[in-house]
Amino acid sequence: MRTRKKTGIWIFFLIVALGQLFPLIWLIDFSFNTSADFYSDSILKWPSSPQWQNYLNAWVDGKFLKYLINSLIVSSVTILLTVVLSLTLSYAFIRMQWKMRALLYSILLLGIMIPIHATLLPNFAIFKELGLTDSYLGLILPYTAVSVPLGTFMLSGFMRSIPKEMEESALMDGSNIYRMLFQIIAPLLKPALVTIIVTTFLNCWNEFIMASTFLSKDSLKTLPFSVMNFAGQYSSDYGSQFAVMVLTSIPAIIIYAVFNEQITKGVTAGAVKG
């Protein structure tokens, strides 16, 4: 009876996993088809002759490499700022005693409830006056501002679980506060830091509305614009559009697969400790 129940559970999870993976399988499958194959009745249709030209079109006509570099710059700087600010803020709120600490912490956490696109118009008006549109900072600043509240919240839960005696011992050994924070405390927060890094990366990597509003220079555009390059005269080249989407999704899939275990630890442990 137990074996049958266990088999049933595995079958159920296998079906759920296939359901989750099907959009990716469908995307990869049709990226090798010609545009005419998209009008067939088949849900999946592997071509007799895979159209590798679709990927070449995606790389060249989609300006994939240029936009990839821009996305990496924006994502890397955003992740660095988010990690540093979240770590220092969580330490200040949890370990230090100062006036209005609880109030400011509550105000900061309100940022978790504010969607990034709700700030689109005010950010655009402010950045236009400051000359930050058509620049990397025009994306990095709002991306960081939206990511820091959640990062601070997660790290605060972990920070409470670290014994204060470790910090006292480090200070007695002559360590300053920055060395103690980044060399002693930060390694203990690895699961939470990895979770913050991955979630921030995914949010930056897939964001398009704010990027399309703030950026008009082609030299600064990020990876989602690769798909837009097939509008107009290339609008019927569905295979190349699907190839662009496959190439765009590969970095996110690899990063999530590599750090999946750390993300699970970060979320579950943070829920208990927070």
Summarize this structure as a short list of keywords or feature phrases.
single chain, 274 residues, mainly alpha, 13 helices, transmembrane, transport, Carbohydrate ABC transporter permease
What is the H-and-E element order? HHHHHHHHHHHHH
Question: Approximately how much beta-strand content do the residues carry?
Answer: under 5%
The helix-and-strand class reads mainly alpha
Helix content: over 70%
Task: Give the averaged pLDDT, no decimals.
Answer: 84
Biggest pleated-sheet summary = none
Q: What is the C-alpha radius of gyration, as a whole number of Å?
A: 23 Å
- DSSP, total strands: 0
What gross morphology would you assign?
globular
Number of helices: 13
Query: CA-to-CA gap between the ends?
Result: 39 Å
Uncertain ranges: none
